[in-house]
Structures are given as structure tokens and as C-alpha cells.
Amino acid sequence: MAFHSLERFGRVLQALRGLELSVSAIQVFLVLAKTDRHISALSDLARRVEVSKTLVTHIANRMEALGLGARTEPQGDRRFCSFRLSPKGVELARSMEAYLAGEADTF
Fold this sequence. Notes:
The chain has five helices and three strands, in the order ααβααββα. By secondary structure, the chain is mainly α. It has a three-stranded antiparallel β-sheet.
């Protein structure tokens, strides 16, 4: 593993330390990081990550509490709720993606 990859890994670990994120939450991060404007309907996130809508709702609650994103509701209608990464969430997701991309290059 190259030094720059270790350095990136260290930054990712520091960012994740104390957040207690599940594997599903990390998958949601990565899906949101790849979408236009870092936003997606909660139901679409559940489908793409292959988890229940209830679990995605819990993930969204956790991410909001950590300041990593926020819900958006068209005219206050929670049935059509979307989730958008905050600047802090975008930065963390990009760090994770960069590390994972670097790891793929080593194999």
C-alpha cells in the first residue's frame, strides 16, 4: 500500500471515529455521493441499497443528528421525502470514495 493511500485511510478513519455508522449507512453515503446534487428520495435509497424504507429512515435520522445531511420535503409532505448530504456529509463521502478507489487500484 502506497504512503498516500495510508494517509487517505487515516483521514477516513478519523472522520468515521465516533460516528458509529453501520455498513448500510456507509452504503447510503456512497449512493448519495454519486447522485446529482447529492440528493435522493428515501424510497429510492432503500431500493438502491436493498434495505427497508424503515431502515433508511433511521439512517437519515442518524445522519441528520450528526450534521451529515438533511431531509427535504416538497411543501411539507413527508410521504415524498428526499435526503441531501450536507457539505460535511459530501466531504466525508468523497473521502470514503477516494480511499475505496485507491484500494481497488492496488488489487
